[in-house]
């Protein structure tokens, strides 16, 4: 998952949705998917190739459900291989705005995951486990509704550095909270480099490190069949 580095062709469905408004490609992923900003961030459209269209079909109902309890994008419409949502205030935790403030970003990510885990009701969740979490995972430390792809880019931050919302919930499901925390702490290394940021994230979440569970869920993440979580950004 990364910012586009060159020109990106705008699909017809995005042109139709934009209806003359400005369109900018803002995010690309390893599956060939692209997220477009429409109207300077008022709306967004994610477009995936046909072989991965089912991933967006999985995300739409998860967003609709989660939005009842926490801050995630509102689904406007969806179709084969595309998902149209309203924008949320805030910027991704990996936005250049936060490049020189990784500790602030780590705190927001940790606080955001705690908010998500506390807000989403396990008993009401109509979805199974995240696709990459093994069926025979160890007994949970705390069973929660996980984001499922808790990498740094999927946390939004307000201008004051606090948590503002989550995006890309296509693999949302019930699992041990360490499924999210293991991936979230790992992704800090990818996005911000060396530092004490993992400890900052866990402190903001309000939990002590659990090396055994972290190692287990990182192995599961790395060995997922397709090499990527179902949402893939």
TrEMBL record:
Segments forming domain Aminoglycoside phosphotransferase: 39-131, 132-213
UniProt GO BP: response to antibiotic
Statement: the UniProt record of this protein carries the keyword Protein biosynthesis: no
Key words of the record: Antibiotic resistance, ATP-binding, Kinase, Magnesium, Metal-binding, Nucleotide-binding, Transferase
GO MF terms held by the record: ATP binding; kinase activity; metal ion binding; phosphotransferase activity, alcohol group as acceptor
Active-site residues, as the UniProt record annotates them: 149 (proton acceptor)
Database matches in Pfam families: APH
Annotated binding of Mg(2+), by residue: 154, 168
Similarity comment: family membership: Belongs to the aminoglycoside phosphotransferase family.
Protein name: Putative phosphotransferase
Organism: Mycolicibacterium arabiense
């Amino acid at each position: 998952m990364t910012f586009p580095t060159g020109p990106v062709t705008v699909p017809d469905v995005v042109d139709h949705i934009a209806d003359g408004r400005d369109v900018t490609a803002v995010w690309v992923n390893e599956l060939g998917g692209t997220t477009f900003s429409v109207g300077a961030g008022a709306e967004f459209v994610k477009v995936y190739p046909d072989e991965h269209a089912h991933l967006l079909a999985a995300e739409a109902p998860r967003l609709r459900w989660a939005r009842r309890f926490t801050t995630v994008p509102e689904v406007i419409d969806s179709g084969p291989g595309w998902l149209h949502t309203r924008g949320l205030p805030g910027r991704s935790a990996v936005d250049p705005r936060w490049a020189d403030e990784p500790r602030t970003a780590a705190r927001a990510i940790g606080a955001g995951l705690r908010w998500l885990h506390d807000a989403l009701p396990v008993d009401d969740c109509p979805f199974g486990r995240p696709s990459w979490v093994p069926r025979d995972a160890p007994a949970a430390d705390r069973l929660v509704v996980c984001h499922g792809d808790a990498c740094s880019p999927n946390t939004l931050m307000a201008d004051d550095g606090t948590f503002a919302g989550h995006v890309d919930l296509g693999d949302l499901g019930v699992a041990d909270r360490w499924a999210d925390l293991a991936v979230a702490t790992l992704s800090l290394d990818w996005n911000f480099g060396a530092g004490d940021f993992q400890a900052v994230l866990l402190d903001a979440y309000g939990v002590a490190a659990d090396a055994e569970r972290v190692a287990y869920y990182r192995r599961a993440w790395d060995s997922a069949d397709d090499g990527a979580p179902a949402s893939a950004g």
